[in-house]
Amino acid sequence: MHTLDTQAAMTPPAGIPLSEKEVLSWAQNILEARFRRSNYLTSPQHVKDYLMAALATEEREVFGIILLDSQHGVLGFEILFHGTIDTASVYPREVIKSVLNANAAAVILTHNHPSGRPEPSTADVALTKRLETALETVEVRLLDHLVIGGADSVSFAERGLL
């Protein structure tokens, strides 16, 4: 997970012009600080905003997990797998290891589509079902799977896919 230690890390230097990449980095830092500071997921939009800032500019497909305690307090966010421009291999065993290591009670899965189109594929749906079954085996709730594509996102929970 990316970390922020001080408020200064979120404030750009005064009077120094920033590149687009630097501006996006500052925005991501601010959203991350808000995400971590809140510690509890109180809004689906808050989660989407954070994940869009964290994943939208990835050039390759990545798969991550938000680890939550029994009250849905954020334990952490981990990128578990890196893939190619249009796929990432995801191994349920590794997902379960991360969940158990964090002592998580619930999770939110996420991955990006570098194409910018967040529409889930049939492979995305099948993987989510497979992970949901694996998580149920260790009594961990799967709250959602968010697909991030540029400035858009798709929630499996909102679509009734979970």
How would you describe this protein?
By secondary structure, the chain is α+β, with helices and mostly antiparallel strands. Strand 1 and strand 2 form a beta hairpin. Helix 3 crosses helix 4. The protein is built from four helices and five strands; from the N terminus they run H-H-E-E-H-E-H-E-E. It has a five-stranded mixed beta sheet with strand order 2-1-3-4-5, sandwiched between helices. The protein starts with 19 loop residues before the first helix and ends in a 7-residue tail after the last strand.
Task: Please name the defining characteristics of this protein.
single chain, 162 residues, 5-stranded mixed sheet, 22% strand, alpha+beta
SSE inventory with pairings:
Blueprint lengths: L19 H19 L5 H12 L6 E7 L5 E9 L9 H11 L3 E7 L9 H16 L3 E9 L2 E4 L7
Parallel strand pairs: 3-4
Antiparallel strand pairs: 1-2, 1-3, 4-5
Helix pairs in contact: 1-2, 3-4
Give a quick rundown of the structure.
This protein has 162 residues and is of the alpha+beta class. The chain contains four helices and five strands. The chain has helices at 20-38, 44-55, 92-102, 122-137; strands spanning 62-68, 74-82, 106-112, 141-149, 152-155.
Number of strands: 5
Largest sheet: 5 strands, mixed
How many helix segments? 4
Beta content = 15-25%
Indicate the structural class: alpha+beta
Q: Are there runs of 5+ residues with pLDDT below 50, and where?
A: 1-9
Q: SSE order, as H and E?
A: HHEEHEHEE
The overall pLDDT, averaged over residues, is: 84
- Overall 3D form: globular
C-alpha Rg (nearest Å): 16 Å
Spatial order of strands in the largest sheet? 2-1-3-4-5
